[in-house]
Amino acid sequence: MEAQTLYQEAIKFATAKHLEKEQKVPGTDLPYVVHLSNVAMEIIIASSNTINFNLGFAVQIALLHDTIEDTSTNFEELENKFGIEIANAVSALTKNSELPKEQQMLDSLERIKKLQPEVWAVKLADRITNLQQPPSNWDNAKKIKYQQEARTILNELKYGNDFLASRLEAKIEEYGNYLTVD
Ligand code: NI
């Protein structure tokens, strides 16, 4: 199936699922699909700058990446509708809430690293998208932590996609403008 068709199926499914929870882009009134389409946009642009990149596969993961973590969707549902490789990818991008909070990110990164570079690319694209102006209720410590976490993602996944790794590096640098120095 062509990537355009795969995109349409995935965005319809994900939008409906996130709407069930009335999930918004954090700090805004925008529906969550704005975040998903931004991640997909990063992936589409990266695909034309990356050799041997499976765009149809990657764009579905981009649109579905938060469905298990944030909605009623489970692994079997994704497997039935989109196939086992998509379900495995979204599962790796999902934090294991049974682990202590400080271990959840690294655990997810370890599982991502066992999968195709397109899965690494979606995690890089996710954080690139999220490194925008932080919500006004975030204090400096929270912002510093978020920037530090982004550095961990970059260090662990930079070999998955050169183009997105340099974009993330630049975004981490820019994010420093939101920090207050005292
Ligand atoms: Ni996300």
Please outline the helices and strands.
Layout: H1 3-20, H2 33-47, H3 55-64, H4 67-70, H5 75-82, H6 84-92, H7 101-112, H8 117-130, H9 140-157, H10 162-175
Helix pairs in contact: 1-3, 2-3, 2-8, 3-8, 5-6, 7-9, 8-9, 8-10, 9-10
The structure holds nickel (II) ion.
Nickel (II) ion binds at residues 35, 65-66, 126.
How would you classify the quaternary structure?
A: single chain
By secondary-structure content and strand pairing, the structural class works out as mainly alpha
Q: What is the string of SSEs from the N terminus onward? A: HHHHHHHHHH
Mean pLDDT: 96
Number of helices: 10
What's the helical proportion of residues?
A: 55-70%
- The CATH homologous superfamily is named Hypothetical protein af1432
Main β-sheet: number of strands, strand sense, barrel status?
none
Shape: globular
Strand proportion: under 5%
CATH architecture: Orthogonal Bundle
How many beta strands in the DSSP annotation? 0
CATH structural fold name: Hypothetical protein af1432
Which ligands accompany this protein?
nickel (II) ion
The domain tally reads: 1
Distance between the termini: 54 Å
CATH class label: Mainly Alpha
Report the radius of gyration as a whole number of Å: 16 Å
Low-confidence stretches: none
